[in-house]
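Explain the record.
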Amino acid sequence: MLKSVLRRLRSTSVPTTLSSLKAYERWAANYPPHAHNALMQAEEAVMMQLCPSLIGKRVLDLACGSGRYGQIALKQGASNVAAFDNSPPMLKVNQLPFKAVATTEQLPLASGAIDVILCGLAFGHLPTLAASVAEIARVLKPGGYALVSDFHPFIFLNGQRRTFTDAQGQTYAVEHYVHLYADYHKAAYAVGLTIDGVLEPRMGQDKHVRFANDRTNVGTPIIIAYRFQKSR
């Protein structure tokens, strides 16, 4: 009887939370370079709606992970794609030709070197936005665009958590910090970036997204995607 109770308690317990570096070290071997669940498919769809033409553009896949957006950029005709991430295990499985270990706060690029930045579902791992948004502004050329997606703050403020299951079947939560629209706007405005597009896909067809539990109402936004433009 006691063993049965303990099993039920373990199965409903809150997963251990890992730092993003520790999480992706465990996740890398099983993290494919494509949108591999319904939430990521919804996120990618709105990112592509916001994306300008990439033909002949110099593109940065920022916090690239396994290289999903870098591969999309190459398929869409980008002339050059750089891929940076702070996780060596994720870069090891990344097949993009030009990649390097770097944080979002310090990019090994000249100022004004990039036409378009694509950054998917990464800024939620950062406690603060200012330094990373300032680097985006620095490396973008005047008139350039940055597309940044994040898990929507509504679901996390409602008690949801960002989780994954490793190769051993163990489920963990990943560190996540809630950033509201106002936080992004403040960081962008301070460095000459303008938010000129926002999309917020909602629960509906995506209602079976793993971390959105039964308390999440249909119609709740699950992703927020921003398009920033650097002032000319």
Summary: The beta strands are 17-18, 58-62, 80-85, 99-101, 114-119, 140-151, 163-165, 171-174, 193-199, 223-230.
